[in-house]
Amino acid sequence: MKIGVLTGGGDAPGLNIAVYTFVKLAERKHEVYAIFHGWKGLLNKEVKRVTSVDLLDFAFTGGTYIKTSRTNPFKDEERAKTLAKNVEELSLDVVVAIGGDDTLGAAGEAQRRGILDAVGIPKTIDNDVWGTDYTIGFDTAVNEAVKAAESFKTTLISHERVGVVEVMGREAGWIALHTGLATMADFVLIPEREVSWDFVAERVKKAYEAKRWALVVVSEGIKSYGGPVDEFGHVRLGGVGNELAAFLEKKTGLETRATIPGHIIRGAPPSAFDRVLAVRYATAAYEAVEEGKFGVMTAYRDGEISYIPITEVVGRNKLVSGPWLKLYETYWGNSE
């Protein structure tokens, strides 16, 4: 078979290992092609045959060697026709799409239309892909966010200040929650739980009175500022940390600083967990291709790798809920 591999959406630590592992397995029997710049690469025919040796030097770095984009190949019917035409001309049989909801949604649509068979691998530092416990990149992003928060904490303690750390997370607060738990932050704000900033200020003031410093972690997705959107309808986020810091300083009278590690937590070398997860996902994706099991996404559930139909995944974000939301309420809920 001729198999294409692409990475779409935001980059995430572990992508290069996933691509490398799949190519290393598949090249024994098949022709494997890197599709550069995600789905945009199929629209522009940015496709190149690769071997695992070509990818080895980049396998353990962050980012994605085969590049990415937020291009929607089904934004209109003209694009869909171009996609089908190019796939036919390239004689591609299967695409392994590594990405989040949007990238996987395009893979599912390509499968539904009969353009080509698809297997998905879940990737996003936000960890919000439905049907899997963990996505590639999440563990590394949390570890990097914790490092940033701990470094920030030392200067808060030294100067007796309040600090706000803004982390990524559009609709799901997984990074903020895990960062807050790992650092025992005095308050955490996530998109899933609306909270009064006056209440946050009260909690911060009490924490400061007890130890002469305070740390707040906030997910960027708690507030949208409008503006242009990408091809999947997502607005650019970021900046709420600065706004919250200004509010807290005015409300409490305490000197407050904000830091936004932003894309830094997304570009680090993958953690051991993300490396192994990427290998397990890529192996499962290869096995799915060999068995003719298409239209599925690899998933991690309770320590085991399984498959789930892509159609069940698309449009269903996995938000902080159940035991995780209960844990959030235990530390930062409204009850005293």
Automatic annotation (TrEMBL):
<dbReference type="GO" id="GO:0046872">
    <property type="term" value="F:metal ion binding"/>
</dbReference>
<keyword id="KW-0479">Metal-binding</keyword>
<dbReference type="InterPro" id="IPR000023">
    <property type="entry name" value="Phosphofructokinase_dom"/>
</dbReference>
<dbReference type="GO" id="GO:0005945">
    <property type="term" value="C:6-phosphofructokinase complex"/>
</dbReference>
<dbReference type="GO" id="GO:0048029">
    <property type="term" value="F:monosaccharide binding"/>
</dbReference>
<dbReference type="InterPro" id="IPR022953">
    <property type="entry name" value="ATP_PFK"/>
</dbReference>
<keyword id="KW-0324">Glycolysis</keyword>
<dbReference type="GO" id="GO:0061621">
    <property type="term" value="P:canonical glycolysis"/>
</dbReference>
<keyword id="KW-0808">Transferase</keyword>
<keyword id="KW-0963">Cytoplasm</keyword>
<dbReference type="InterPro" id="IPR012003">
    <property type="entry name" value="ATP_PFK_prok-type"/>
</dbReference>
<dbReference type="GO" id="GO:0042802">
    <property type="term" value="F:identical protein binding"/>
</dbReference>
<feature type="domain" description="Phosphofructokinase">
    <location>
        <begin position="2"/>
        <end position="288"/>
    </location>
</feature>
<comment type="pathway">
    <text>Carbohydrate degradation; glycolysis; D-glyceraldehyde 3-phosphate and glycerone phosphate from D-glucose: step 3/4.</text>
</comment>
<dbReference type="GO" id="GO:0005524">
    <property type="term" value="F:ATP binding"/>
</dbReference>
<keyword id="KW-0460">Magnesium</keyword>
<dbReference type="GO" id="GO:0003872">
    <property type="term" value="F:6-phosphofructokinase activity"/>
</dbReference>
<dbReference type="GO" id="GO:0070095">
    <property type="term" value="F:fructose-6-phosphate binding"/>
</dbReference>
<protein>
    <submittedName>
        <fullName>Pyrophosphate-dependent phosphofructokinase</fullName>
    </submittedName>
</protein>
<dbReference type="Pfam" id="PF00365">
    <property type="entry name" value="PFK"/>
</dbReference>
<keyword id="KW-0418">Kinase</keyword>
<dbReference type="GO" id="GO:0030388">
    <property type="term" value="P:fructose 1,6-bisphosphate metabolic process"/>
</dbReference>
<dbReference type="GO" id="GO:0006002">
    <property type="term" value="P:fructose 6-phosphate metabolic process"/>
</dbReference>
<dbReference type="GO" id="GO:0016208">
    <property type="term" value="F:AMP binding"/>
</dbReference>
<dbReference type="InterPro" id="IPR035966">
    <property type="entry name" value="PKF_sf"/>
</dbReference>
